[in-house]
Amino acid sequence: xxxxxxxxxxxxxxxxxxxxxxxxxxxxxxxxxxxxxxxxxxxxxxxxxxxxxxxxxxxxxxxxxxxxxxxxxxxxxxxxxxxxxxxxxxxxxxxxxxxxxxxxxxxxxxxxxxxxxxxxxxxxxxxxxxxxxxxxxxxxxxxxxxxxxxxxxxxxxxxxxxxxxxxxxxxxxx
Length: 174
What we know:
Blueprint: H1 2-43, H2 48-71, H3 79-82, H4 87-122, H5 136-160
Helix pairs in contact: 1-2, 1-5, 2-5, 4-5
């Protein structure tokens, strides 16, 4: 159980660091978007590259922040029934959902995106738009990375169902 607790702490710390790094990207995206909107409407000028950079920042925030969001239980869920359930039933649903849906979905996205990303790296894919950003392949590499971080956080959550923070076996309060 010590190894499982250490594994959980490692994953939680990894996603905590990723989330904190992504928070700075969020600030950069807000400033970039505001500056680009001011330039477009006040000075009647714009940049395809800056617009694409906004999209790239958004994609990185979404992909690399998903594990952090899951760590802090910030994902949206349908609470019509879930909110009325006991903590015991919520833990059961979360465990089954993690094993039956979250992990298989992450594995599927990682598996299918690897070839997509590799093809992009082989040709050093850039933007198809004139004036766009040159290195789209770097952004595409965030797809399997983001889902890998989310899958790791899912493993951490599932492991937490078998090891409580106080070291007792069972429960799932981690």
